[in-house]
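Data availability (excerpt). The following record was deposited with the supplementary files.
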Amino acid sequence: MSICPSNDFQNVQPEAAVLHIQRIEVFVIPALAVDANGYRVCLRISSNRGYGWSEIFIDDSDISFHLQDWEHQLTPFVGPSTISNLTELISNTLKQYETYDQRAIYLFTNALHQLNFLPDGSHQAQVDEELILRSRAVSYLSLY
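Predicted structure:
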């Protein structure tokens, strides 16, 4: 029994197998809650398949958070890649930075999972949210 007839492979577009990450942005925003001493760290991926978002909360006493380290960890992911190459790159990056803060890779992989779930016409909402995040951010990282 064949799961996918061989003639179906002829219909697969080669560019569909490639994910091109055009930009990774990280926004560090002060927490809005009165009793929260820390920051929302939001990561946004812009790609040929849409946008992906992920965020975590970082306590202001967390001395392990360094945006420069995140830049070094995330830069290799910008550009075109097949899904298998991207998976291998994530694995290698985690091994390379196993003694460092791995939250950047965690946010990145979570944002990747959202790429295909954005509704049509969501581009303007994404632009509006980006403007709001930039205006509130105390730190901002943009990788092209």
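Summary of structural features: Residues 1-12 have pLDDT under 50 and may be disordered.
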